Amino acid sequence: MACAQDVAFDVNTVGWAPLGRRTALSLHDEVPARLPAATAVGHGHEPSGRYALAACRDDEEDGLRQAIVPGALKSRVTYRVAGWISVAAPPEEEDGDGGRKASHAVRVRISLDDGRRVVDGGAVCAEAGRWTEIRGAFRLRESPGSAAVYVQGAPAGVGVKVMDLRIIATDRKARISHLREKTEKVRKRDVVLRFGGASAASSSSSLPAASVRVVQMDNAFPLGSCINGGVIQDPAFVDFFTNHFDWAVFENELKWYWTEAQRGQLNYADADRLLAFCDRAGKPVRGHCIFWAVDGDVQQWIKDISGDRGQLMAAVEARLQGLLSRYAGRFPHYDVNNEMLHGRFYRDRLGDDVAALMFREAARLDPGAALFVNDYNVECGNDPNATPERYAELIRELQRGGAPVGGVGIQGHVTNPAGEVICDALDRLAAATGLPIWITELDVSEADEALRADDLEVVLREAYAHPAVQGVVLWGFMQGRMWRQDAFLVNSDGTVNDAGRRLIDLRREWTSDARGHVDGDGQFRFRGFHGTYVVQVTTPAGKSLKTFTVDKGDAPLVLDMDL
Questions:
Q1: How far from chain centre, in Å, is Cα 447?
Q2: Which DSSP category does 478 fall into?
Q3: C or N: which end of the chain has fewer Cβ atoms within 10 Å?
Q4: Strands 437-444 and 407-410, bridge-based pairing
């Protein structure tokens, strides 16, 4: 996607300088058998095989540094960071056969104006003996006077290797063109509507001069939003929500710290009110969440009993029984133990097997619900704790314990999203797990409303064009009623801003509407997005209506319209 003038920084080995008092740099040629494969994320070329090694590091801040040509980085441009990182492990981390034992976080940072500002350019969990591609992104609010790339991380004594690091300006127009072509294949299907009798002659004679209008009523790819008890009292919020979203999720009202803030004092009234609102609006609801793995999001009374394994286990079992039995059949999805890549509260106290037990029991109590893992930063390329590989390994671990994992939740709290980075994460998760993916908590934080609209479009187009993604839920949309600042689509007075209009425009773009006439063979052909439709056929004798569904499939969908 990048041509020569799009590359702001492209270095093999020349020009690196050491970071750290004792850091020693050396240049090497990699063994051909260990070279990584080129990918479309940042490298349209094969890896060079030449790399720089920073050894004798005394601190995690030690590593490599190289200046970026003045003026190469521009404001308001989203840049991707691509390259390969590895580490040289100290002897104590090698196994008996010289293989790898440990992984270490290595980060790329962009230092601006002599260190007065620093932005993240991505992070990886690097291992000795293999190369890991770094996939990061950043954007600058103003052009810097000076800039430099820093590669740091890993503990003291661990060497850091860098190969073919590049910083590439994203090409928005080219990416959107690519995604439109991809969407055409992934989300649409040829449809043949056959009218009248079995033969072409009888069909054409029975429908003289018949005109056809096909209108899509619903898209098979849902968009949703989180709601809470306050926003459903706001007419402007309710109006936008009911007109532009298909699903809902409760912001807090189903979480354990809300339904049982004090031990034994259950409060399902708030969740019941929200569920009744969604029933009236015809919106399915994701169940978020049964448990939360992060210590800071566990209520105090649970922490107070956490030293007693029996009491804590009894509380976990009561939570499962109480919630899943009460709402059996009401929530199509559940996030079972939220953010397990970033927290281990229950596993640390009840053992690793408890995570799979939560899934097994939830499935037993509500067998119709799809049970999700759900976590953040997986799509960003900037969190070594939340790489797609670590997420996939967590899922495999759950499955080995008998957990019926039914879906992968990627939260999507993003800033400066780069489509290629998001797509790569989706590709790796889909290939490793084979599970459906939902973006479950999307918000795009950017003070500039025009850029916010562009960023939102980036994420929505990448999701819609990817065959493994089955839906997107936003984490709110109205000013003053969202968790993150500068992410709203609708102003507090109900007016729709650039980001909100972009959402509406995309929904319109992804809705099919076809007109024409029945042909001489008694057929009407069109290509439409997956979803539900109504067809109106008008003849001199009157009008007839019929509904039908276009589902996924490679072959044309042929439907007999017996009007």
A1: 21
A2: B
A3: C
A4: parallel
Burial 59-74 (b: 16+ CB within 10 A, else e): ebebbbbbebeeebbe
| Consecutive H or E run containing 359 | helix 353-365
Please say whether the dihedral angle defined by the alpha carbons of residues 162, 166, 170 and 175, taken in this order, is positive or negative. Answer: negative
- What is the identity of the amino acid at 350? L
Q: What is the C-alpha separation between 338 and 297, in angstroms, rounded?
A: 10
More confident residue, 45 or 29: 29
Task: Return the beta strands (E) in 154-269 as ranges.
Answer: 159-169, 188-195, 211-219, 223-227, 247-250
- Tell me the H-state helices in 376-497: 388-400, 419-433, 449-465
Entry pTM = 0.93
- Helices 449-465 and 172-186 sit at what angle, rounded to 10 degrees? 30
- Tracing tokens 């049982």 back to the chain, one arrives at 260
DSSP string of 103-157?
Answer: EEEEEEEEEETTTTEEEEEEEEEEEBTS-EEEEEEEE-SS--S-EEEEEEES-TT
How many beta carbons lie within 10 A of that of residue 233, not counting itself? 9
User: 98-111 burial by CB neighbour count: b if 16+ within 10 A, else e?
Assistant: eebebbbbbbbbbb
> Among 30, 127, 133, 339, which one carries the catalytic annotation?
339
Euclidean distance between CA atoms 10 and 229, whole angstroms: 51
The rounded distance, in Å, linking the Cα atoms of 314 and 299 is 16
Tell the burial category of 170 from Cβ atoms under 10 Å away from its Cβ (0-12, 13-18, 19+). Answer: buried
Concatenating the DSSP letter of every residue in 260-294 gives TSBTTB---HHHHHHHHHHHHHT--EEEEEEEE-S
- Residue 8: per-residue pLDDT: 64
Task: Report how far residue 382's alpha carbon sits from residue 221's, in angstroms, rounded to the nearest whole number.
Answer: 28
Whether residue 510 contacts residue 529, with contact meaning beta carbons closer than 8 Å, is answered with yes
Residue 232: pLDDT above 50?
Answer: yes
* Catalytic site includes residue 441: yes
What are the pLDDT digits (tens) for 416-443?
999 999 999 999 999 999 999 999 999 9
Q: Residue 480, Cα to own-chain centre: how many angstroms? A: 24
Q: Are 316 and 367 in contact (CB under 8 A)?
A: no
Distance (Å, whole) CA 372 – CA 469: 13
Catalytic residue chosen out of the listed positions 93, 441, 446, 457 = 441
Q: Which amino acid is at 192?
A: V
Q: Write the pLDDT tens digit of every residue in 466-510.
A: 999 999 999 999 999 999 989 999 999 999 999 999 999 999 999
Q: Please state the separation of Cα 252 from the chain's center in Å.
A: 21
**What's the CA gap between 411 and 251, in Å, rounded?**
13
Would you say residue 41 has pLDDT above 60? Answer: no
Residue 1 scores a pLDDT above 50: no
